[in-house]
Design brief:
Strands 1, 2, 3, 4, 5 and 11 form a 6-stranded mixed sheet that branches. The N and C termini lie far apart (94 Å). The chain contains 12 helices and 12 strands. Helix 4 packs across helix 5 and helix 11 packs across helix 12. 40% of the residues lie in helices and 18% in strands. It is an alpha/beta fold and 354 residues long. The longest helix is centred in the last third of the chain and has 35 residues. This is TRAP-type C4-dicarboxylate transport system, substrate-binding protein. InterPro entries: DctP_fam, TRAP_DctP_sf. Keywords: Signal.
């Protein structure tokens, strides 16, 4: 005996199947950075990047379940790129300043000091390099990373020391901590550059590992560096490109277009929000440190020019080294300086003059 479902029941079943939406696919993603959330480039992962992705995906078939791994919980400072490459994290704010060997091209600003104090100009210039020069994107792909665009630049670097400095002559015999390639900024001054990072500067100065550091105000203030290095010299080393947002490329390539677009939109929103807050916080940071006992002086134009001229041709040496590795180092250097000039920047030194 055959069982026949009444037509009314069939119609009801079909209606129910149409009325019930398909369950949204939940994507698991870990976001990594080695610094703690007190720093702006981490803060805006939580406050801007993630919420923007979520908003962009509203009404789609996709959503994210986020895991935020900051402050060394998954990767130490400088270990983010490896975490992305190995698939330990899907998305990361990678500080390129700590990857001078793996990502030399992205460190161009650190080899051209005394440039612009405007972080937005720096970000725009390096982002355009990624658009115009294939080797920039290729640098990321070598490590299974997908460049999402934008990024973060650090505000105009200053010199903080536990002794007074009026010119580079006062640095002779002193040890100065600096991030990555910034150790080159004291070469030829008589000082000894020592590699370091924000997570250790306070203790390193306090314990005598070095006598001061090259740092940017919006990080120095929350770290209370004025407590151990009260002399702040505004040298106008310039704002520096320090990193960007990337995704694990294999993971990214597996995502539908709507998700890829959401990630890129969020990266742009992240950069905009980061720059806006950074701009507001620079003067406040200097005032906070001054109120906390810092003595702030400005390097004279004459001494700035003298310092810039005293440095060896670190930009050309960097470019040639990249060229020898098969990378477009000289092309990147010329294009970067050209973009700064096009933006009306008054350079402390034209590093394209070999």
């Amino acid at each position: 005996m055959k069982f026949r479902m009444p037509m009314t029941a069939i119609a009801a079943a079909l209606a129910a199947s149409v009325a019930m939406p398909a369950a949204a696919a939940e994507i698991n993603a870990t976001v990594v950075n080695g610094h703690p959330p007190v720093f702006l480039w981490v803060k805006h992962l939580t406050e801007t990047f993630i919420p923007t992705v979520n908003k962009e995906l509203e009404g789609t078939d996709y959503s994210f379940k986020w895991t935020e791994a900051y402050g060394g919980t998954l990767a130490a400072v400088g270990g983010e790129l490896e975490a992305i490459e190995d698939g330990l994290a899907e998305i990361g704010a990678v500080p390129t300043v700590f990857e001078p060997t793996a990502l030399p091209l992205q460190n161009v600003s650190y080899f051209t000091p005394f440039g612009t104090p405007d972080a937005q100009i720096v970000i725009d210039a390096v982002d355009k390099l990624h658009q115009d020069i294939p080797g920039m994107i290729g640098s990321w792909e070598k490590y299974n990373a997908e460049y999402l665009g934008g990024g973060f630049a650090l505000d105009n670097y200053v010199l903080m020391t536990n002794f007074p400095v009026e010119s580079m002559d006062d640095l002779k015999g002193h040890k100065i901590g600096a991030p990555g390639a910034a150790v080159n900024w004291v070469e030829g001054t008589g000082a000894v550059g020592v590699a370091g990072n924000l997570t250790t500067y306070y203790n390193d100065i306090q314990t005598g590992v070095f006598d001061g550091t090259i740092v940017f105000p919006t990080a120095a203030a929350p770290a209370k560096l004025q407590e151990v290095a009260k002399h702040i010299l505004v040298t106008d080393f310039g704002a520096q490109y320090a990193g960007t947002l990337v995704a694990n490329k294999e993971w990214y390539d597996d995502q539908p277009e709507v998700v890829q677009n959401a990630l890129r939109t969020a990266a742009a929103a992240y950069t905009k929000a980061y720059i806006a807050e950074q701009t507001q916080r620079v003067e406040a940071a200097l005032k906070q440190m001054e109120d906390g006992g810092a003595i702030i002086t400005k390097l004279s134009d004459e001494n700035r020019a003298k310092w810039a001229a005293a440095l060896p041709q670190i930009a050309d040496a960097w470019a040639k080294n990249a060229d020898e590795q098969g990378l477009p180092g000289s092309e990147v250097l010329d294009a970067y300086i050209g973009q700064l000039k096009d933006a009306g920047v008054s350079l402390g030194r034209d590093w394209t003059q070999r």
